[in-house]
Amino acid sequence: xxxxxxxxxxxxxxxxxxxxxxxxxxxxxxxxxxxxxxxxxxxxxxxxxxxxxxxxxxxxxxxxxxxxxxxxxxxxxxxxxxxxxxxxxxxxxxxxxxxxxxxxxxxxxxxxxxxxxxxxxxxxxxxxxxxxxxxxxxxxxxxxxxxxxxxxxxxxxxxxxxxxxxxxxxxxxxxxxxxxxxxxxxxxxxxxxxxxxxxxxxxxxxxxxxxxxxxxxxxxxxxxxxxxxxxxxxxxxxxxxxxxxxxxxxxxxxxxxxxxxxxxx
Length: 265
Prior knowledge:
This protein is of the alpha+beta class. The chain contains eight helices and ten strands.
């Protein structure tokens, strides 16, 4: 089955950051659980990069434990390696926010993370609010969504950060057992993806010069289940669909090229 993703939204976002912003913070957190409403942050790791000539230049780092004021579940310790003993002398979250994280992030930061749109950023925002502050983000990028763009035609075992880096040869010198290494890996994917996007854009622009404009004959909607719906577009070039869950276009006919005139994202 032929499939593709509309990468232009993420390209425009990354291009805006690299061309018009001065810095960006890549970060990751470890927490006591999975709920954004009740979990507590037990580790915050971040790297602030200056943006110089559309390149990321590492500027400052922050890697700290935070005392959650509650017992760290054994299951979390198994996953993260962080124990109650390790955080007992660490600052509680109010002090961590006031004296470390807030000064590090600054006002209205540009933030980037891996697979955190529905977790880390929500938890960090709630932690700010619990302690009397508001986190206002300027630009935000989830690199997992970017990774899906650049692997749509690739055979990749999974979408884990370490797998993506290894697949594209971006893992040199990284252990993935260190919080800051994970953050550096995310930054590497960010920069690598930008170049992939630019090449794809140029390739697509060249193909666009030879494309005919399709005519839409009908639109069909399949509700599906558990949010996995699709919009089907019937044209004079055949029928294709947009998967609202995967955010991918698809077509059974391998020879059918993307119809650029339609953007359903």
